Amino acid sequence: MAHHDAEVSHATADDEYLNTTDASGHEHTDVNVWMIVQFAIWLMGSAVVVHVLMGLMFVWFVETRESVSAPQFPLAVGQEQRLPAGPRLQRFPANEIVEFRQRESRELNSYGWIDRNAGTVHIPIADAMRLTVERGLPSRAPTAPADAAPSGEAPSMMPSDSSSGRMMERRR
Length: 172
Description:
By secondary structure, the protein is mainly alpha-helical. It has a domain at 103-136. It has four helices and two strands; from the N terminus they run H-H-H-E-E-H. It has helices spanning 2-8, 33-67, 93-108, 125-135, and strands at residues 112-115, 120-122. It has a two-stranded antiparallel ribbon. Strand 1 and strand 2 (120-122) form a beta hairpin. The longest helix has 35 residues, at 33-67. The chain is elongated.
């Protein structure tokens, strides 16, 4: 028994790997080559199956799409094609903004009617500014102070300095 232990034991851990005279060329305890070959076969087989199924599904999707006509919506049955209400996408936004600005410029720099029946016109902006400076802005006629209002009348509405223009009733 002691003799058998002497044959199996090694002086160092590396001694067992020194003998390379084995005919197979590799150590059988490290790798199971047949398991690696089986894994590669199963991997290739499953890859082929998956690709075949994907190809068949793609063909089925194409045939299904080509066989179906345009979708019919229940609210659109019996109506011709019409554009939706409201704002839509601009076809040529750069051209539209140039046309819009030209139209605004013509309107700001020319004379024209706004409402012919009411006698309302528009004038060039430069003329409007000049007339405003010459004539001044309209203002309200000064009113008597609320304290001086005769009895029986409602107190006058007078904005205070911090009212931002809001009219508030002055209380006594």
